[in-house]
Design goal:
The protein is an alpha+beta fold. Helices cover 41% and strands 15% of the residues. The strands form three sheets. Strands 4-3-10-9-8 form a five-stranded antiparallel β-sheet, with helices on both faces. Strands 5-7-6 form a three-stranded antiparallel β-sheet. A two-stranded antiparallel ribbon has the order 1-2.
Length: 317
């Protein structure tokens, strides 16, 4: 080969390699029509086109449309709460739903999360907590309190509510644990079930109780041993205990706990997933007490609350 031919051949090779590099650089910055945008439309979401390295030349070309990813646990839980709130509204119930992840501190809410609801028997958790903090839960008082939590014993609550502070109990608990939005005292005289809480405030209280060494060992054990049949004969395994196993719960129901005497109250609250999540589902009916039984239990409303709890708990599991 002559020197002149070799030089020309080298120039050709150099020019070809340079052209390849230039083409590769141009291709790396091109965008193509996103198939999601449809025919003739260019998506604002550009799809980068790149050249494959030689070692991957035989690999199949991936689709321009990305694979859909399953919703995150965070999104799934928010969707579950939204569906639960929609279920309540479809049955003419005022509802507030709150979930607090005690591991991450993340709060999830739907409906009237900061609205005031009558507690019904959920206030019995506060009664027991106050007596435990004051070191008064001993002997016969402890027996009464255990029946009050596990069997939702109203007679026991009638005795212990006054000892725990009566109408001042809610504000005392809120101040003790530093919860600004816990709720408000009862406005219907003598009715401890008319004590008001917000869903957000209640799960915040549950988080505080869960870490209180004076309260939780006794209270957690009692809530985990709720009996299926309450002292008044009501099947209290609606809501959370009907939706998930292993929960620690305190239920509430009444025909006289709402500010409007015509409205029924049905609440399900507690801890699920090995106490990781505090859950509060609070509901008030709309002039529906004609459907409540002699114990103040509205079975139709409780069935809706169970559906709501299943939507929430399914999103947690």
């Amino acid at each position: 080969m002559s020197a002149r031919f070799s030089a020309r051949f080298g120039v050709v090779l150099f020019a070809s390699a340079s052209a390849a590099v230039i083409v590769g650089l141009v291709l790396q910055h091109l965008s193509v029509v996103d198939p999601v945008a449809g025919a003739g439309g260019v998506s604002s979401r550009a799809v980068a086109v790149t050249t494959a390295p030689r070692s991957a030349a035989a690999s199949p070309v991936p689709s321009a449309r990305p694979h859909s990813t399953p919703p995150s646990a965070d999104r799934r839980l928010r969707d579950g709460l939204a569906r639960a709130a929609h279920t309540a509204a479809a049955h003419d119930l005022r509802a507030g739903i709150a979930v607090l992840d005690l591991r991450s501190g993340r709060f999830y809410g739907s409906g009237q999360t900061d609205g005031l609801f009558g507690t019904g028997s959920v206030v019995k958790v506060m009664i027991a907590a106050r007596l435990l903090i004051d070191h008064e839960l001993t002997g016969a008082t402890a027996d009464l309190a255990y029946s009050m939590i596990t069997r939702s014993d109203d007679d026991a609550a009638n005795v212990l509510w006054g000892r725990a502070g009566g109408p001042s109990l809610g504000p005392w608990i809120a101040a003790h644990y530093g919860i600004a939005g816990l709720g408000a005292p009862n406005t219907r005289p003598g009715r401890w079930g008319n004590t008001h809480v917000t869903p957000r405030g209640l799960v915040q209280l549950y988080a505080k109780l869960r870490t209180d060494p004076t309260v939780w060992p006794w209270l957690g054990d009692a809530m985990r041993h709720a009996s299926r049949i309450a002292k008044d004969g009501t099947d209290q395994f609606f809501g959370i205990p009907a939706a998930i196993s292993g929960a620690a719960v305190k239920q509430g129901w009444a025909d006289g706990s709402a500010d409007n005497p015509a409205d029924a109250i049905v609440n399900t609250t507690g801890f699920v997933d090995h106490d990781r999540y505090a859950v509060a589902i609070l509901t008030e009916g709309n002039a529906n007490n004609d459907g409540s039984d002699d114990q103040g239990f509205n079975a139709d409303q409780a069935a809706v609350v169970t559906t709501m709890a299943r939507l929430v708990c399914a999103a947690i599991e």
